[in-house]
Write a structure and sequence with these properties.
The protein is α/β, with parallel strands linked by helices and 196 residues long. It has one domain: Response regulator (Rossmann fold). The protein is 46% helix and 11% strand. The chain is built from seven helices and four strands; from the N terminus they run E-H-E-H-H-E-H-E-H-H-H. Strands 2-1-3-4 form a four-stranded parallel beta sheet, sandwiched between helices.
Length: 196
């Protein structure tokens, strides 16, 4: 079984989604040091303008400032097979949620705006989840159960305007810092729920 896979989606895949990819990865590694991967955190952009490029420098600075790694990152355009392989898709905005679901309608139940997922995550009944263990299969089962629980909590409601992440591209470090904080408001609680 493949590790629990989270796909982060933004527009160009050089700012928000790579920050989310690497900050979730760091949050999981903060919980447990493990030889085999317990989770795959990946990202892509709805547009291919920056394909192959490194992370935007202020985004990379934020990742490094939060003890993550920006090494080896290369932007890529979203494809249907990336969505098919993901157990959870987190988009920076509601527009990108719509883009993902238009590409793969069957992914709607596992696709969320990042802020929406973080907001609803707090309502998940921890006692109803499969046991937490630092084994890939256990993390996968627990992760899928978390996604199903958050989908039930969403109950068909649209995301809030405040769930969107601002696009920090071309703006100062202060904006990138705020966006990094908002990303960690979801990635840290997700890692904590996966691996308490």
């Amino acid at each position: 079984m493949a590790p629990f896979t989270v796909l982060h989606v933004c527009m160009g895949n050089i700012c928000r989604s790579p920050m989310a990819e690497r900050l979730l990865d760091r949050a999981v590694h903060d919980r447990v040091k493990h030889d085999e991967p317990l989770l795959r955190s990946l990202s892509a952009g709805t547009g291919g303008w920056h394909e192959g490029e490194e992370m935007n420098p202020p985004a990379a600075r934020q990742v490094r400032a939060r003890r993550g790694s920006a090494d080896g990152f290369a932007a890529r355009k979203l494809r249907g097979d990336f969505i098919d392989e993901a157990d959870l898709i987190l988009t920076a905005t509601a527009d990108q949620y719509d883009y993902v679901v238009a590409l793969r309608p069957d992914a709607a139940a596992r696709t969320f705006v990042l802020g929406e997922f973080g907001r609803l995550l707090h309502g998940v009944d921890k006692a109803a989840l499969p046991p937490a263990e630092s084994k890939p299969d256990a993390v996968h089962q627990r992760g899928v159960a978390i996604v199903e629980a958050v989908h039930r909590l969403r109950a068909g409601a649209a995301p809030l305007l405040t769930d969107d992440l601002d696009d920090p591209w071309g703006r100062g470090d202060q904006t990138f810092q705020r966006v990094g904080d908002e990303i960690e408001d979801t990635t840290v609680p997700l890692a904590t729920l996966l691996l308490p």
